[in-house]
Amino acid sequence: MKIVVLGSGIIGTASAWFLHKAGHDVTVIDRQPGPAQEASFANGCQISVSHATPWANKTAPLTLLRSLGKEDAPLLYRFRPEWFQWMWGMRFLRECTPARTAYNIRQIVAIADYSRRTLQEVRAETGIKYDCLTRGILHFYTDQKEFDHSLASAALMRELGCPRDPLTIEEAIRLEPALAGMRSHLVGADFTPTDESGDIHSFTTGLAQLAMRNGVRFLFNHNVTRLLTEGSSSSSIVSGVEVIDENGQHRSLAADAFVMALGSSSVDLLRPLGIHLPIYPGKGYSGTYTIKNDHSAPTVSLIDDEYKLVVSRLGQRLRVAGTC
Do 189 and 167 touch, CB atoms closer than 8 A? Predict the structure, then answer.
């Protein structure tokens, strides 16, 4: 089959890799000048099955109410006069019941564990270097209610095969001495030794380069404008995609199948086809710092659940990331 993949982030690039291995003729389209230039550029850089508690949980509504008017809130929701945002918000609240939270944890753990095993297989097959560390991930807590709430989620994850085990404060500091300076603020911790960290940009660009060498075509600086269909409105099929290429010219590319991997941009492209994705964009932040004093730097990846803060070690660099 001739397949067009829209988006060259980690999802689009990995999809192209596996589709080409299955014998298909694959072309990847992206508006950026290279792969992994947007959401896959500088996120938390963690393969964290243990971080499977969804934001939509029973504590989220109260957290949102408390965050109103606070620009430094860990979960910041900006109200806009957009019906789609309000509809997304209602669906978010619907997922905050204990039953839905437990169901969603099961789904997230399953897909995260599968993703980690698949990554390990690709890593062994390709030898891509991306500052991979397999030292585990430590969650630490500075709020007693947050810690108490985490215990039930951690117990469910252990039932599902994810070894997210609680630690005392002293055990956490022995595991990660960099926390010693904030001992008085800690109320609890848990550790998952099977979790990993690594540079998603390095991995995605490395995989894209290998895919190119093997015959996958990448069309960069191509902006997707719409999907082209054939047939009646009730039984139409996607037959092509219209793009504006690097020279500003309109082009159309036909294919037998299409993979949509454009993140929140997928919503507007699929809406004319009657496909309504409940995806709303969020804003993240990150900073990468060179480690100057290795003795005081973290040796494992850290997550502060109260402030939605992630600190990942990437060789001699630290990536600090979060969302707002």
Answer: yes
